[in-house]
Write a structure and sequence with these properties.
The complex is a heterodimer. By secondary structure, chain A is mainly alpha-helical. Chain A has 13 helices and 2 strands. Chain A is globular. Chain B is built from 11 helices and no strands. Chain B is globular and about 70 Å long. Classes of the chains: A mainly alpha, B mainly alpha.
């Protein structure tokens, strides 16, 4: 008797705990994305009449504008990810290996501070700094480097600066974590065995930090690909960013079928890059995600 | 560095210079935003015209609407606070039940479920937004067709914003709380049971006090991420705009330094939250 009761109460508890998890994952993640997929394959044949079809995807591949913007967004995101890694690695290395104790903790904390403030505020800062009447163009004139103030907003380079800036945190934290755990004596041993800086970096440091590098790159790529705020404010009307196309279709034109197809293509690209990143570095998804 | 390795002076100098340049890069935008909140000019642009508090306390008589007189902006801050409170509450409750589910229970399909719980973290925010928007509308239409119900909360608006934000913030809460629960020493609970404590008493006096730092920490992170969220929120807003969406709209139109004033306010609030969190950590480690 007691055993059955214990068993019943165990199952009751299990289902009580499972219910919120399933509600969350199926109600807010799985079903909405299945629905999005269905929506993207829905073709409008008449008023209020729909049929299965590939019209939205044909539009995407047939219209060079959409395809160009898609490729452009992917390429800029890749470049932004690479730049973020190049910038964040020396900083993470300095915090983890070149400084000790209080200084190291202080430097780490200082690097995180800007990210406590909203992306909107940080973007506002860049706009004030870079626009034609802004701080930096004015400074260049004062220094005599340019004759008249130049417009530094609305270039691809501006978008890159904004994206790298906004992504740094997500690279520095996992990199720091993986470099911190690298035993100093391994590096010393590598030097003792006659390695120079470059070989030590390539054969000791990078292999050890690979999980951190992968985690950082995956998250940064995903975030830049899906970024809307930075790209549209720093890139202006000509930023030609793919999330803007999704927004236009969904909210401005109310063409949800087309927007769903674009959304799905972006999701596919993002997932493919995550998968590729994991494959290339030989990492497991759950290990990588627990680092970020 | 590794103290046993000699480094030439130029490399040391280069490191220091690099770190300084990096810090300049990090703080320049924030310092600029803060400085121009106090500039006595109608637009946040140089040159410096003198110090003023107009953008905080100015009223219409001056021709400048300061932050504390800008009803629209103050309303959007309240909206954001309301959304963030709901999001924090829901994420913490579900994050906690998830942590107990994954750490204390064993069932079939557990591995798959734990993998699925990480998926929201690699879906771009815009996609989370549109998929929830489309799905909610479909459900609302269905309920309307079948029963003639008008389900307002499934249409774009604050309840949908809350749903959109928790869809990925629950994952973050789950990770933080699970990580702490995993390190918990179960013998403490067993000892309490042996001493005759009930299940609820053990949860209340042993397990939850132990989890408290993780709960507070994830509450702060979730609250902040909700308050700052833009991508998902933008797709789901109705008539009431949270602060980030409101600021975005004004930034596109070229705003007055009142936005700088809001930003200063946000910086101070974030700093206060960070300090509070660090003090909490200190007390814990003591």
């Amino acid at each position: 008797m007691a055993e059955t009761r214990a068993r019943v109460s165990h199952y009751l508890l299990l289902w009580l705990l499972l219910a919120p998890a399933l509600l969350w994952l199926f109600g807010l993640i799985v079903m909405p994305h299945l629905d999005l997929a269905l929506l993207s394959f829905r073709e409008r044949v008449g008023p209020g009449e729909y049929a299965f079809g590939l019209a939205q995807y044909r539009t995407f591949f047939g219209e060079p504008l959409y395809w160009d913007v898609f490729v452009r967004t992917a390429l800029i995101s890749l470049v932004a990810t690479a730049l973020t890694l190049l910038l964040a690695f020396p900083i993470a290395w300095t915090i983890a290996k070149l400084t000790r104790g209080r200084l190291s903790a202080l430097l780490f904390a200082v690097c995180l501070i800007p990210f406590w403030v909203s992306e909107t505020v940080r973007t506002l800062g860049w706009m004030i700094l870079l626009r034609e009447t802004g701080v930096l163009p004015g400074l260049l004139v004062t220094l005599g480097l340019t004759e008249a103030p130049i417009e530094m907003l609305y270039h691809d380079a501006t978008i890159l600066v904004g994206l790298v800036y906004t992504s740094l945190l997500f690279m520095v934290v996992p990199l720091y974590g993986s470099l911190e755990s690298l035993d100093d004596s391994l590096i010393e041993a590598a030097y003792d065995l006659g390695g120079n800086g470059l070989t030590v970096l390539r054969t000791v440091v990078i292999p050890h930090a690979l999980p951190g590098i992968t985690a950082g790159c995956i998250v940064v790529f995903m975030l830049t690909l899906g970024n809307y705020l930075t790209a549209s404010l720093l890139g202006g009307k000509n930023s030609l960013w793919f999330t803007e196309q999704i927004y236009t279709q969904f909210i401005t034109r109310f063409n949800w079928e087309q927007g769903a197809a674009f959304g799905f293509l972006l999701l596919a690209l993002s997932s493919a890059m995550v998968w590729l990143g994991l494959r290339l570095s030989g990492q497991r998804f759950s290990d990588v995600m627990s680092r970020t | 560095m590794i103290p046993s390795l000699p480094r030439p002076w130029w490399l040391k100098l280069a490191t220091v210079l690099f770190v300084l340049a990096f810090l300049l890069f990090l703080f320049m935008p924030l310092a600029t935003v803060a400085a121009f909140a106090f500039n006595d000019a109608p637009y946040p642009a140089p040159p410096w015209q003198g110090f003023t508090l107009d953008w905080f306390i100015g009223n219409d008589a001056l021709g400048r609407t300061g932050l504390f007189r800008d009803e629209e902006l103050l309303g959007s801050i309240l909206t954001s606070l309301l959304v963030a409170s709901w999001v924090t509450l829901l994420s913490l409750v579900i994050g906690t039940t998830n942590a107990f589910l994954m750490e204390r229970m064993r069932f079939r399909g557990q591995g798959l479920l734990s993998l699925l719980m990480l998926v929201p973290l690699v879906i771009p925010g815009v996609i989370l937004g549109i998929s929830i928007l489309a799905f909610a509308s479909r459900v609302a239409d269905l309920l309307g067709d079948l029963f003639g119900w008008e389900v307002e909360f499934l249409r774009p608006g604050l309840p949908l914003v809350v749903l959109g934000q928790i869809s990925y913030l629950i994952a973050i809460a789950t990770l933080t709380i699970s990580a702490r629960l995993k390190r918990f020493d179960r013998t403490l609970e067993e000892a309490a049971y042996n001493l005759g404590a009930s299940r609820l008493a053990v949860l209340g006096t042993i397990t939850f006090p132990y989890l408290q730092p993780a709960l507070l920490g994830s509450a702060a992170i979730v609250f902040l991420m909700s308050f700052e969220n833009f991508n998902t929120t933008l797709m789901l807003v109705g008539a009431d705009s949270p602060l980030t969406v409101m600021m975005y709209g004004r930034m596109r139109d070229g705003a007055t330094p009142v936005l700088n004033a809001v930003s200063v306010f946000l910086m101070v609030a974030s700093a206060a939250l960070a300090l509070l969190l660090m003090r909490g950590d200190d007390r814990q480690s003591r």
